Structure formats: structure tokens, C-alpha cells
UniProtKB/TrEMBL annotation:
This is histidine kinase. It comes from Thermoanaerobaculum aquaticum. CDD domains: HisKA (cd00082). Coiled coil: none annotated. GO terms for molecular function: phosphorelay sensor kinase activity. Keywords: Kinase, Membrane, Phosphoprotein, Transferase, Transmembrane, Transmembrane helix, Two-component regulatory system. The chain crosses the membrane at residues 20-41, 47-69. Residues 87-295 form the Histidine kinase domain. It holds the Pfam family HATPase_c.
Amino acid sequence: MSWRGLPAGSLPRDVVRIAVGLVLIPAVAILALSFAMVQLLPEPGSLLFPLFLVPLAAALLAGGVLLLLSSRELSRMSKNQALFVAQASHELRTPLTTLRFLASGLEDREKARALENAVAVLEAGIHRLIDWGRLTGGQLHLRLLPVSVAHVVGEALRRTEASLAARGQRVVRSGLEDASVWADQEAAVSALVNLLTNASKYSPPGSTVELGIGEKGEWVTVWVRDQGVGIAPGLQRKIFRPFFRLPFVESQGVEGFGLGLAIVSQVMAAQGGKVTLYSKPGEGSCFTLWFRRGQRE
């Protein structure tokens, strides 16, 4: 089974729903009411009110048509924007590769590490922009197969090892050793990398990040718990929105575009799974990836 991302131009569908639900349907209802009143009212003078409703209905119909036309234009703009983001992000990869090469040749290793860390941050941001461009442009292809959770966890830890070590942090694992889940392997690894990266960024240097694998009915869960400041209840739904960033991140100097969790949420849903959050202010946060079990016909 494969998934090709969100259909191109799918984001403006709310506009269509508004046009149909709040404009077109009331317009048709008003027209029907006015004609019914014309038929039922015997006095000519009493026709003024239903006739007054006709231009109101016509105005609503015209507004509905304009909204529908606007939704088509928004659909086209959404697709073009997604393609631009993906192309621009690809173009930025070459200079970053050059910077990484130059950093490797620096004699001052402290400056070299600082440059390498800066390049790593930029690369992570570019990868997220590329993923978001593919996702919203309908170009993200997922191949769903039975996948080993142990492999997903091992690869995610390998990719985040350097960034965790740079902050003096370590990962403590618990739970099942392995399980088979229904997923796209690379998408599953990227989702877990995102959670581990966030846990590292929002936890103090020298702290511990917890990672666990569990089972709940038809689900296999992979969870990551940090030692950060936690997230207020009113913000917990918002963090899965694209480009949303928590209010305190700027003062803490945490880099990012606010796209990572939005991508994780969309990609997990496309695999038949989900991502959930449990958090209390002052007690850190625990993000859980929910995967379907891997054996399917």
C-alpha cells in the first residue's frame, strides 16, 4: 500500500464548506420560502415581503459563487507555494554541503564544531521544509509495509546521537525489545527523530531523555519523554498546527520553523496511526507515536 501525501490544493476545502454551509444552502432555502409564500398569500399587497427575499437570496447566491471561485484560486496558490518551498529547499542543500566541507578543514576544532552544529540545524530545517512541501503538494510517497520497531528506534538513535551528545544528554530505553508495525520505514524513523530532537532541545543540558516501546490492543506505541518545562493545556492542541511555536522558545534560543510536529501528525495519520501528547507544566512532556500492528493481508 502506498500514500502520496495530501491532495494538491486540499488546504482550501474549508472555504468550500463555508460557501456551501453558510451561503449557498441558506440562499436556496430563502428562495424556496419566498416562492412558497407567493403561492400561499392571497393578497397582492402581502407579496412585498416574499419579493423582498428574492434579491437577498440572489446576493447570497452570488457570494457563494465568488467563494467557490476563490477556493479554486486558493487551491492553485497552495500547490504552487508547496512546489516553491520544495524547490527552494533543494537549492539550499549545495551551499550547506560546501560549508560542511569547509568546517572539516578548519584547524580550530572549536570553531569547526560550532560551524558543523549550525549547518546541522539548517539541514534539519531544510529537511522539514522539503517534507512539508511534498506533503502539501501531494508529492510525499509512503510505502506501507510491516516494519521492525527495533530498526526504527536504532536508526533514529543513530541520527540523533551527535546532537544529544553535544548537550551532554543520554537516552534511557525501556519496554519491548521489538515489535512489527504497519508503517513506511523512513517516515517512521523521521517521526521518531523529530520527537527525540525536540526532547533534546527542550530539556536541560546533561538531562536524560526516556524512550519506550509498548503495546495497547491493536497498537504498538513508541514514546519519548523529556525533562522540559511542560506545555500548558491550552497550547497542547496548537502545537500540531503548521508554523506554530510555543511562546517561550524565542527567549530560550530554540531554533525551528514550527513544522516538525505538524509533519509528524500528518504522516502518522497517513500510516493509519497517530501522535498524542501528555504534558503538565513543570513536569515535562511525553509524545507517543501509535502504530498499527505489522501483520496485514
